[in-house]
Amino acid sequence: MFIEGLSPILWLILALSILKLPAWKACPIALIIAFVVAWQFFEMPLQDAISGTIEGSLMAIWPILGVIVSAIFAYNLTVQTGGMEKIKDMLSSVSTDKRMLILIIAWGFGAFLECMSGFGTAVAIGASMLVTVGVPPVNAVIACLVSNAAMSSFGSVGLPLTTLAKLTNFDALQIATYTTLQLGVMVMAMPFIMLIAYGGFKCLRGMIPACLIGGLGFCIPSVIGAATMGANLAGIGGAVCSMAALVVYAKKFPIKDPEYEIDDYDENFSITFGEAVRAWLVFILIFVFLIGCSIPPVAEALKGISTKVMIYTGENAAPTSFQWITTPTIIFVSAVLSGLINNVSIGDMGKVLSRTLKTLIPTFITIITIIATARIMGYSGMTMAVATATVDATGTFYPFIAPVIGSIGAFITGSATSSCVLLSKLQVDSAVAIGLNETAQAWIASANASGSCVGKIISPQSIAIGAAAVGAFGVESQIMKFAVKVYLPFIIIMGCMVYFGQALL
What we know:
The protein is mainly α. It is built from 23 helices and two strands. It has helices at 2-18, 23-40, 46-80, 83-92, 98-116, 121-132, 137-151, 155-168, 172-182, 184-199, 208-228, 231-252, 273-294, 296-303, 327-341, 346-359, 361-380, 382-394, 398-413, 416-433, 438-456, 460-469, 476-504; strands at 306-309, 320-323. The protein has a two-stranded antiparallel ribbon. Helix 3 (46-80) packs across helix 16.
């Protein structure tokens, strides 16, 4: 039953890697395959298969698609008000050294964009900003691709990790903490790799302190934030701290190297405090509201504003809970308030929202069908069959390949969230099969998220987004060649960390 259980994933590998189908076309077929296989080969009652599909679809709509729509709407509204252009000018005015700007824009601000909105936004925006300051298009895409990968599990206000926690029934704080620990080496190394991607090892000349500040500036706050506030704020906090530390360092210790000096820049750029606040307002509001809603009494009260519905009809079915005052609500309200303060009319905001919804239709199809597929695979026993066969083949060595499985999910779907949805149950089932305790099971589940980050480096979707953003069409294979060189050592390092880490737990 191994091949039958694996058939939806095998189809996705074939469709996305060989047939080059877009995810929104491939994933509905994967759902059909999972439905038929569960019904015919795993003897899942037709009613249960239908109700499982409905449950997965509704889980995709809220909160996952709610977060995506709200986050992209907030970003598009910031572009509409001209705030994003001001943010770009503010960041570019900090230093005239291209290497420093790569760290500030692609690492610091890129991390912030990824943690706020996710889904390729940071690659597209970061790469286009770097090109405007003189970084060659291909190098700009590679730098942003590498940076984005390290932050992918925190994308869309921690959506991959909160989704993973919900699907595996582990504590969200525990999942967030374990993932940040597993990603520690990768986070620390990526600022160095970004500069090497730009111009080789000579680019590190005089930049090692800045790279260390960028890595530590994100790593330490994100670990503390994950352990205390969860995934929603851990990445955002780390991004803010890292960006602030890099800006302060660049101002206090300006780097002057003629080889990397910007050719054309505005020495007289200035902006008032009020203009700066209005440009950053939507992000400030989201950050403040998220902190306020994470205060225990407030968080507990908000949990009560929810609806529980019995959807799945199969054995051991449990009600599906929908919490209404949560991350997508916070982001959407912040975006609207920011728009009003920036004198955007309700009509114009409606147009921005409509445009956002239209551009996200392929994403809606992809997320809904991939989550429904994952639910059917889990409920029918397909993931357990795959897990059992995998464990039989690898035995207690399985934790080493757990990140590899997560990376394959991200490579296939182009999304850390989708990878966690598709494969998290398989990871936990495998951990159970080799007799790991509950704490170690959570560690293995987290490996799916951290492995997804590594997989995003070689994701065809991410590469295509970056290349399109800078108009560098036809260079995808060149980017992929470098990306593979980064992927291979890091997936091995991640495997070692997960393997030896679970032994300690």
